[in-house]
Amino acid sequence: MVCWPSSDGEETAVLIDTHCHLDASEFDADREQVLQAARAAGVERIVIPAVELSNFEQVRQLAHRNPGCVYALGIHPMYVDRARDEDLIHLRSWLQSCIDDPLLVAVGEIGLDFFVQGLDRPRQLRFYDAQLRLAREFDLPVLLHVRRSQDIVLKHLRLIRPQGGIAHAFNGSEQQAQAFVDLGFALGIGGAMTFERARQIRRLTVKMPETALVLETDAPDIPPAWLSRSRNSPAELVQIAEEFAKLRGLTAEQVARLTTGNALRVLPRLAECQPD
User: Fold this and answer.
1) I want to staple 222 with a disulfide (CB 3.0 to 4.6 A). Which of 37, 179, 191, 203 is the partner?
2) pTM of this prediction?
């Protein structure tokens, strides 16, 4: 199912922002208005990933307070240096207590970041492996951070074999992209694709199979070209989708149906709860 009934009873394609840090402090002053703008623009689902233990409750509450929002729980690779070892035990407890919550859709944001200097790589790897194993234990997909780390991320996916998920903000080679797809993952495409100089991402947007791609904003980060350095928001997904449509020679309606269908496939719990 890739569309939902609208207010007049007609079925309409919708957009899903598969990665938005709605809990970020950048939204503290106007979070409700940001959500209203997104829904008015046609963004009917927003996936809010956690980044560390301290914001697990916040993302859960945001999802439950705001129709159309769902959440993921995990420890981001850029936060593992300040995480405690026992945070992995707490993550397992959270997953166990929330597994029957239909708004919990994934383990995330997890992965590896080999771009930021000074991060503890062995510690990243240990947390990444442990969280992949938790995802497999609870039969949940994963939201992956893969910055400059695609091959190592793939190596551990092949070893542990979680059910699939999304390689968020993907910016690797075509060969790496296909390797993720072969393992049951979709590739997250967002604001970076809207820059003409982002030739590799734009090439992948055109060349990868239609079934391999989902849309995301990563708001408040990775603003699209028209925002320059301004705060990104989930409402921008509509124009991101329009740029996607131009690159692939599709209509906006086709892109909505295509990317929504892909999101529902790789995050199966999304299909269990329709927008209100």
Assistant:
1) 191
2) 0.95
Spatial neighbors of 238 by CB under 8 A, at least 6 apart, are 15, 41, 42, 43
Residue 86, phi then psi, degrees to nearest 5: -70, -10
Domains of the chain, with CATH numbers? 13-272 (3.20.20.140)
pLDDT digits (tens, 9 = 90+) for 136-157: 999 999 999 999 999 999 999 9
The DSSP-derived string for 11-61 is EEE-EEES---TTSGGGTTTHHHHHHHHHHHTEEEEEEE--SGGGHHHHHH
CA atoms within 13 A on the CB side of 6: 10
- Report the run of H or E that residue 136 belongs to, with start and end: helix 121-137
How far is 68 from 274, CA to CA, in rounded Å?
Answer: 8
258 beta partners: none
Distance CA 194, CA 168 (A): 16
